[in-house]
Amino acid sequence: MLRKKDLLGLKDLSKEELERILAHAAEMKSAFVARESLDNLKGKCVATLFYENSTRTKNSFETAARLLGARTISISVATSSVKKGESLIDTGRTLDALLTDVIVIRHSMAGTPALLAKNVRASVVNAGDGMNEHPTQSLLDLFTMKEKFGTIKGLKVVMVGDVRHSRVARSNLWALGKLGAETAIVAPYTLIPKGIEELGCEVYTDFEDAAAGANVVMGLRIQLERQKIGLFPSISEYGEHFAVTEEKLAEICPDALVMHPGPVNRGVEITSGVVDGESSLINEQVTNGVAVRMAVMDFLAGGER
Amino acid sequence: MSILIKNGRIIDGGEIKADVFIDNGKIMRVGENLDVTAEIVIDAGGKLVMPGLVDMHCHLREPGFEHKETIESGSRAAVHGGYTSVACMPNTNPVIDNAAIVRYVAQRGREADGARVYPIGCITKGQKGEELAEMAKMKDAGIVAVSDDGHPVMNGGIMRNALEYAKTFNLLVLDHPEDSTVSGDGVVNEGVNATIAGLKGISRAAEEIGIARDIVLAETLDTRIHLCHVSTAGGVQLVREAKARGVRVTCETCPHYFSATDEEILSYNTNAKINPPLREQSDCEAIIEGLKDGTIDAIATDHAPHAADEKNREFDLAPFGTVGFETALSVAYTYLVDTGELDMETLVRLMSQTPARLLGLPVVHIKPGIMADIVVFDPGASWTVRASELYGKGKNCLYDGWMLKGKVEHTIVGGVLKV
């Protein structure tokens, strides 16, 4: 169902491919919530290779793989020979030799999944590479929006925060554009990457201007080290202008639903009241993550290939 | 060894059709239908006979990084690209910052079976940007210029002293203009393609601040300065304005800054990871304009060989640089001459005579009595670059798979046929 061996990013996928994955994810979600076990990946092996810390994404992929009947291998940097200086390519070849069918990789450097994919037989799924892409996160965001609104076309989605360093924002901009949503980003200029408007979004520095009429407000994680390197002067000043709060939502876009890729810095980029509030989709996003990852791995290595 | 090059189109301040007779290392006669016998006869009908190229900026990696390139392999690669003299940068290990290492590199150069090799010494000890290196002693040992290439001299006070001290000994400073506090840990040009690829950008401002600072220093101190690898439209304009008001500034660019853009990095091709980074089409056009109006004085290769494993890795971790010796002339011909932007005489000045003059090396002309450093170039040939077939040790070639026009047929160094 996918033309490619790998899922490296959404910029490479067509609208039709995105829609097929989302449709298949709906089937997978039904099985998941019914607690059914499937055998689409029976006899197959899925390895998670994480060079960056992650709780939800790694567990989500491993849960999805097991629900499809695959055996799993879990490699994280601290326990593997990576620490001894083994190159990424050698690690990939080792996984090939262990008859791995899918390698799920997360890495702090952009382009690393592409490098791995070029050098291994297994299918590679990008679980986040530096500032480049996080395709399955975006797919679960799309899936969640589609569930709530019925369609993505015509939605207005606003992303608030550190767009510059955000792979989630980039994947979402690619995919939402292809599916016909209207997108906007809002952040101080120090957190807006150069030329981002060429990806088809409106660029704002004022939350009120950006969020007027929004259907979805997506908070992006603010990493505290960004403040240390001088991209903004304080969390408090950042929060006044860019944090997603109940007050701002009530005043500007009271009907908007709120999403966040997690992990959330409560009280930094988004208030606890919003995270736990009625408009929050954050926990549904996590559930949907398993479904889209089942769909992706099934397309790449399962019976649906 | 005597060589007769017959029927070539001689490119040297104009074009004439003539034979060239070489003996005892020198050009003996130039004229039509020369009636001489030679040990080697080259039929250069339809081909261009030009002064050998001079590269004022390359990395031969020896001592210390012989797995990337050696002086021998580099000088062989150079003659395959039409270069008869190359000046090698001092960022070796140990760095070339004292007379003993200069003598070692020069000696290895004399032993090499290719282009003439001229060492460049460091500006500062250890290329640390703190204390001046012993420039005068290194000059006595054979350096042709000083440079901390790869490491900008960030301290303006040190650069000021370096320019004045180098002037004392008539040494040209080859400046790597970059404000590293602005470039930070960027790996590609800052712009939409960096944003699409999710790679950290290097602002044009990093290079242009370096250029502006060093132009001001040279202007204030009335010294010469040569700016390496100018890559941006703004940089060209800064140099143009400085030259117009009489600053003694010269500069070079490299073939990749007028033939390639940062679109090359979208596939995470680490051979397109170069410092300064590949820019955008508008910059390529400004570089060509600078070459046409004389703002840019020279084309250098910045030949930067690396081992395959060093480049076949995470983009952020791969070293900067592409090899350049064996493609430079064809790239320049394809993108500058074949497109009608420059004539061949101008290209020869940019790639041979001006760099030789800037470094104080013999300037080659195709005239009797001059040393026979000659390249025979076939402008009618076209070829596809195959990195694996390059003669140099480093196969990290940006142009792998590119179709280029014009090909080096023969290279003669000091009257000896090397290719």
Summarize the structure.
The complex is a heterodimer of chains A (305) and B (419). With 305 residues, chain A is α/β, with parallel strands linked by helices.
Describe the structure.
The complex is a heterodimer of chains A (305) and B (419). With 305 residues, chain A is an alpha/beta fold. Chain A is 41% helix and 15% strand. Chain A has two domains: 15-134 and 289-301, 3-Layer(aba) Sandwich (Rossmann fold), CATH 3.40.50.1370; 136-285, Rossmann fold (3-Layer(aba) Sandwich), CATH 3.40.50.1370. Chain A contains twelve helices and nine strands. In chain A, the strands form two sheets. A five-stranded parallel β-sheet of chain A has the order 7-6-5-8-9. Chain A has a four-stranded parallel β-sheet with strand order 2-1-3-4, sandwiched between helices. In chain A, β3 (102-107), α4 and β4 (123-129) form a beta-alpha-beta unit. Chain A is globular, with a radius of gyration of 19 Å. By secondary structure, chain B is α/β, with parallel strands linked by helices. Chain B has a single domain (52-364), classed as Metal-dependent hydrolases (TIM Barrel). In chain B, the strands form four sheets. In chain B, strands 1, 2, 3, 4, 5, 16, 17 and 18 form an eight-stranded mixed β-sheet that branches. In chain B, strands 9-10-13-14-15 form a five-stranded parallel β-sheet. A three-stranded parallel β-sheet of chain B has the order 6-7-8. In chain B, a hairpin with a 3-residue loop joins β1 and β2 (15-23). The model of chain B has no long low-confidence stretch (mean pLDDT 98).
